[in-house]
Amino acid sequence: MKFHLPLALLLLTGMAHAQTITTSGQPAQLNIRSAGAHSIRITLKPISYKEAAPYTPALAIRKEAAPEISIKELHGPLKKRVGNMQVNIRPKPLTVTIANNKGEKVQELSFQENGNITFPLDDHPILGLGEGGPKPATGANWRQLPVEFDRRGRLHHMLPRWQGDAYGSRNPVPLLVGTSGWALFVASPWVQVDLQNKEQGSFIPTPPAGQDGPQTQTNQHLNQGKGLPPASSFVPGLLDVFVFDAHDPLQFMQDVSTLTGPAVMPPKWALGYMQSHRTLEDDAQMTGIVDTFRAKQIPLDAVIYLGTGFAPRGWNTPQPSFDFNPEVFKRTPAAVINDLHNNHVKVVVHIVPWDRDKLPSLHGSIPLLSYEKPDAGHINTYWQQHLGLMNAGIDAFWPDEGDWFNLFERIKRHQLYYQGPLSTRPNVRPWSLHRNGFLGIAQWGGWVWSGDTESSWKTLETQIAVGINYSLSLSPFWGSDIGGFYPNEELTGELYARWFQFGVFCASFRSHGKTWWTRLPWGWGLHEMGPLEAKNNPLPSELNNPAIEPVVKKYDELRYQLLSYNYTLAWQARVTGLPLMRALWLHYPDDEQAAALGNQYLWGRDLLVAPVFQKGAATREVYLPAGTWYDWWTNTPATGHQTITRKVDLSIMPIYVRAGAIIPVDPIRQYTGQLTDTPLTIRIYRGANGDYTLYEDDGISQAYLKGTATLTHFSWNNAAKKLSINTLRSSTNQPAKRMFNIVLLPEGDSLQVKYTGVPVSFTF
Question: What is the sign, positive or negative, of the torsion defined by CA atoms of 315, 499, 666, 762?
């Protein structure tokens, strides 16, 4: 074949300038494939690596899409559409630029010769990165340090760790949320995240530290891989990054949910109040405390018992143990648990894992897959040791410790406490509360609390930012120890009440801490504080305070009034990926002031919560996004897109409702399963059109997985003052006829509506 000279020269020139793609000095292949509807997956791998992409349990098991770009060399700029994204690739250094359907730039990744990945930054906050925050420098007064909400400005070492002070445990997740409209998740390898430079960020691959065998309970202080992917998973030069278009934050959250597995529905009781216990006297005390809740009509759904060794006398023999403590249980444990069940509370026990001598690893599935061997580290083998507790009537577990497990084992532990209970009680939803977590645990019912924090006003302030960032990048369900774990002279009835108010608007609503009588709703009204379990304790002068219990009861009742709203939020977390606690950015992405706020948040779409975290506060500044907002307590309207000053006393935590919101309000129950003839109230807040879908199922079974639920849609036409009700889906466990009490606010006009499932409209 003959070429004309100009064409031959052109071809030779192009061949001469072809760039062989490399990574860590090895020939490499770049694969780019569609991930979610608004995200792509970029995998740069050595040619010698034969798998399509590296494994991580953070991703739901599903068939990978074929790469739409797969190249080993680059002859010049390459432009191609991948899914809903436009991808441009340039050589020297290998750079991938991503834009969305509208032509808006999403992000740009440059793969550097040193193995790092760089990406441009702007002046918008970066959120996410999992749970927790910086570790204060030695000698620093952490009570005086600013709260880290925006993650810019420092090198994030991304070391999982136990931490006290204001932040609690650090569970890092390399998921960055750029509030200017992008998000990045590094699935592999483990990386440090450098955000020190104002104009450029970097992912720095971090090989696991060398170690002889897995970390154990005794050597976990060495940080030789605890909480990190196993060393065997690290392949030099293997890089796997997801890029999300976050110009519409709701689409971003949906994609994260799709990729990591939709959240499972919790049992409805898990949305009620939980009372944690520490040093126990005997079983009469256990049942007596529940009797006190019922006598005082303070709503309660679960009691949680700490294990012996973490307190002088707990529910079991010294941890780790599956045996009930004979010093506590004067009657058979099954009889005591039955009495608690008859008083309508669930029983949750604190449990810690064996060390490596009895639990060498955590792996496998329940039930066993065909290729699995039931060795000592298989989760099905370990689960068998829990059966005695299940047979005695234990409802749920609080898996503590296990910090020495690697990342894959930590996620596997969530799987253990989801699949294990289901294998024993196949149609009863499991629930567990963990110290450790990572992206992907939502598919295993992952709930995490922030660990052992100090009791302080700074901690309360910081926990707001911690919860928001966790909810953006780890799972929808989070909470903290109400009152803080470590008591001191800063712990007062006022601090406990303010923390309790915040706890009402966290998924995990639980009081817990040392010197535990001060975490009882009536504890600050007593003349003694019970077992002193810490070196520093509250001042005795803070006791005999009758003002705290009524405030706590009021907010506990508010939690139960919002039961239908909160349960619908749990369903929304499943179908949309949106968490219960939401950064203002999620619904107001174009409001730069809203995006930067880490001391207030949205609870669902329609409620704005501003916890009070200053001692003796008489006012609280609250930023209201655009629109009209109503004060929850007074129904007074306020114009948004401004900061207002709300007067507060101890009984008031500012809560605002968006105009156009439709809020279901339940009658006050003493426990979530209590039956009542009082109709559900539907509040409509005038000032804008609105719509709301109420989700209902039995709250217990797995039938929701088959679509057994009722969806009732409410639509409000503000100009016509017209409400329409329509059933989108109906299950057999909902009554054919029911009453709704419709209230129009701020006027307070009300209508009683008998709804039969047939579409109906009416006008005020």
Answer: negative
C-beta of residue 514 within 8 angstroms of C-beta of residue 487: yes
Q: How confident is the model at residue 120 (pLDDT cuts 50, 70, 90)?
A: very high
The structure tokens listed for 291 are 């009797």
Nearest to 127 by CA among 3, 37, 252: 252
Query: Helix or strand or coil: residue 649?
Result: coil
How does pLDDT run across 219-278, given as a tens digit for each residue?
988 888 899 999 989 999 999 999 999 999 999 999 999 999 999 999 999 999 999 999
Going by C-alpha positions, the residue among 402, 425, 423, 429 that lies closest to residue 413 is 402
End-to-end CA distance of the chain: 84
Residue 199 backbone phi and psi in degrees, to 5: -105, -15
Q: In 32-154, which residue ranges form alpha helices assigned H by DSSP?
A: none
Max mean pLDDT among 6-15, 59-68, 603-612 falls in 603-612
Which one-letter amino acid corresponds to residue 413? R
Distance CA 1, CA 11 (A): 14
Q: Is residue 127 exposed (0-12), middle (13-18) or buried (19+ Cβ within 10 Å)?
A: buried
Whether the pTM exceeds 0.85: the reply is yes
* Calpha distance 507→447 (Å, rounded): 8
Q: Give alpha helix (H) positions in 109-264.
A: 249-260
Cα torsion angle, 293, 295, 298, 302, sign: positive
